[in-house]
């Protein structure tokens, strides 16, 4: 493993050769040299992972190296206090020095972590770090993560390749992040116990797997994936063994507070505050369609009956699972609205704005 952090670009340029003359250094940094083939294009490379965007730009290049600036953007609606970018080095490529980030390389995978002064990013804000690379002049294609609420670096549990075969318990509302090498396919979760919040990387993207799930329904569920390779899809497949990765998760229920709140038709547009563990009961006439949430996972659906088109009153029960804000809403419906010539009956919306606190 190598770790490099330098305070400024001047350190990177100094490595090129302290004894070189100004003229020789200027020649070294030109886009092409006489009698040689032109280097590769310096077009930016970008990747977006969940709530973090990473864009690499080749500032200058020469035969045997390049200077690269990477821009990190918080694409979440929430503030972040730290970030990390990862990418796979090109064959023969190495990180010589870096500034405005701490850069480590292990097994060809490079990770850049924020410095103490540029980790905090408001929604939409950006920062940069730079590197000098040796070897082929190939711009990195980084992906990144941050700890804005709901992202993989903010997860309650993080799983890696070493966790295969593990069994763990999550409470409804908790999150689990999966970080695997680029040779793994994007993971999948069976059933409805986990909802996927984000997923990036994995075969054949060449980027490490970064997936995030939230536990939403009690019960058992497995997260699974396996390795893959291009040669396995040839007419005569190679003999590379396939490695299975699987984790067993038991999603536990939310402890009840014993408090029950009931909403009816007259509560339309109400602002309501609940505590984690409170029971919410919604009772509406039969012409309302099943209820929907704008932010999944905050409320755990216990059961629901009736509503359009059953002809029975709509009743739904929820438990407040985690802190946050969500809208719980529905709309009226009728059979004549689905005929070839729909009736002019207007649809009436019903929405309650919820805040769940500890």
TrEMBL record:
Gene3D superfamilies: 2.60.40.290. One of its GO terms (biological process) is carbohydrate metabolic process. Keywords: Signal. Coiled coil: none annotated. Pfam families: CBM_2. Residues 45-156 form the CBM2 domain. It comes from the Bacteria. Residues 1-34 form the signal peptide. This is Cellulose binding domain-containing protein. GO terms for molecular function: hydrolase activity, hydrolyzing O-glycosyl compounds; polysaccharide binding. It comes from Dactylosporangium aurantiacum. The lineage of its organism: Bacteria, Bacillati, Actinomycetota, Actinomycetes, Micromonosporales. The keyword Transmembrane does not apply.
């Amino acid at each position: 493993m190598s770790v490099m952090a330098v305070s400024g670009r001047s350190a990177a340029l100094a490595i090129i050769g302290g004894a070189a003359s100004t003229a020789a250094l200027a020649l070294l940094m030109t886009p092409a040299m006489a009698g040689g083939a032109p280097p590769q294009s310096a077009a930016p490379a970008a990747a977006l992972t969940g709530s973090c965007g990473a864009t690499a730009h080749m500032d200058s290049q020469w035969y045997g190296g390049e200077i690269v600036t990477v821009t990190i953007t918080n694409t979440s609606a929430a503030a972040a206090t730290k970030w990390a970018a990862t990418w796979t080095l090109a064959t023969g490529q190495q990180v010589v020095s870096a500034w405005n980030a701490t850069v480590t390389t292990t097994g060809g995978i490079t990770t850049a972590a924020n410095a103490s002064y540029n980790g905090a990013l408001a929604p939409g804000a950006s920062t940069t770090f730079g590197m000098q690379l040796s070897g082929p002049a190939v711009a990195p294609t980084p992906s990144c993560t941050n700890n804005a609420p709901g992202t993989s670096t903010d997860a309650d549990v993080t799983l890696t390749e070493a966790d295969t075969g593990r069994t763990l318990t999550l409470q409804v509302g908790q999150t689990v992040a999966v970080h695997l090498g680029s040779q793994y396919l994007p993971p999948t979760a069976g059933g409805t116990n986990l909802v996927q919040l984000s997923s990036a990387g994995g075969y054949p993207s060449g980027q490490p797997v970064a997936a995030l799930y939230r536990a939403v329904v009690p019960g058992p569920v497995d997260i699974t994936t396996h390795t893959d390779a291009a040669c396995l899809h040839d007419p005569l497949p190679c003999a590379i063994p396939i490695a299975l990765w699987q984790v067993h998760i038991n999603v536990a229920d939310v402890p009840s507070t014993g408090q029950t709140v009931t909403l009816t038709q007259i509560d339309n547009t109400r602002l309501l505050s609940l505590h984690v563990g409170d029971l919410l009961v919604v009772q509406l006439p039969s012409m309302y369609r099943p209820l929907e949430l704008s932010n999944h996972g905050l409320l755990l659906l216990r059961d629901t009956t009736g509503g359009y088109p059953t002809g029975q009153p709509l009743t739904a029960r929820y438990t407040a699972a985690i802190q946050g804000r969500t809208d719980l809403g529905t709309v009226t419906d009728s059979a004549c609205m689905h005929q070839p010539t729909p009736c002019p009956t207007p649809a009436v919306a019903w929405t309650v704005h919820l805040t769940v606190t500890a």
